[in-house]
Amino acid sequence: MNKHFKLRKALMSDVRPIHSLLNFFADQRELLPRSLSEVYENLQQFFVVTKDEKVVGCCALYVTWEGLAEVKALAVAPEYQGRGLGKWLLETIVEEARKLGVSTLFTLTIREGLFKKFGFKKAKKSVLPHKVWTECVRCPYFPESCIETSLVLHLKKKSQKLSKMAEAFMSTAEPMVPNEPSGPPVYPPEPPRHPSA
After folding, report:
1. Assigned fold of 5-170
2. How far apart are CA 115 and CA 107, in angstroms?
3. What is the pLDDT of residue 88?
4. Signed CA dihedral, 85, 87, 89, 92: sign only
5. Considering only 22-31, 52-61, 126-135, 161-170, which range has the smallest mean pLDDT?
6. Other beta carbons less than 10 A from residue 194's beta carbon
7. Residue 13 three-state SS
8. How many whole angstroms separate alpha carbon 21 and alpha carbon 78?
9. Domain spans, the chain
10. One-character DSSP codes across 59-88
11. What is the DSSP letter of 187?
12. Burial label, 38 (beta-carbon count in 10 A; 0-12, 13-18, 19+)
């Protein structure tokens, strides 16, 4: 990797740059928008790539439940794309997951290419625990017109049987699971902008 770039765990001083980067892609409707408080609350899960101390990329590892973790918020500033920074971040996240003893990684994305190079494979959303969709309820596409594909990477063989606690966590009376995308993403119209008074 170019010596001008550094990859490290995120620091408090990175919160606002991470927030700006993620919401840039949220404005392009490629990621879910995140509030500043969400980034602060989840800061310890983020890794960043910097150039001259400026955050130019980020990615987070969210442990969801027993043996299960999600790759979230993978973003590289447009002017730094194509330099292998996304790959570097994803390699780091996968290695971190292995260190933690995670057996299965998953992600929801509209850009599958990089993940597939790492061995992630398409999986039906219904095979994932229903409780992982807590963030999805804020998405304008949930649940009928979800545009993201779920991808899974098994780091270890599946455990024989889930504990009763894990089963209870994963079950719901009426699961709300996002539908599978059908064809290319179709975005709903942007909300009307009201002129300021």
Report:
1. Aminopeptidase (3.40.630)
2. 9
3. 97
4. negative
5. 161-170
6. 6
7. helix
8. 10
9. 5-170
10. EEEEEEETTEEEEEEEEE-GGGTTSSHHHH
11. P
12. middle
What would the two tokens of residue 41 be?
A: 């609350």
Residue 183 has phi, psi (to 5 degrees) of 85, -170
pLDDT the model gives residue 179: 59
Tokens of 190: 């942007």
Q: What is the DSSP letter of 43?
A: G
As a whole number, mean pLDDT of residues 51-59 equals 96
Q: What angle do CA 2, 108, 188 make, to 5 degrees?
A: 110
- The whole model's pTM is what? 0.76
Q: Dihedrals φ, ψ of 153, to 5°?
A: -130, 120
For the chain, give percent helix, strand, coil, nearest 5: 35, 25, 45
Which tokens is 172 given?
């719901």
Three-class DSSP category at 99: helix
Between strands 68-76 and 104-109, the pairing is parallel
Joined tokens for residue 117 = 């190079």
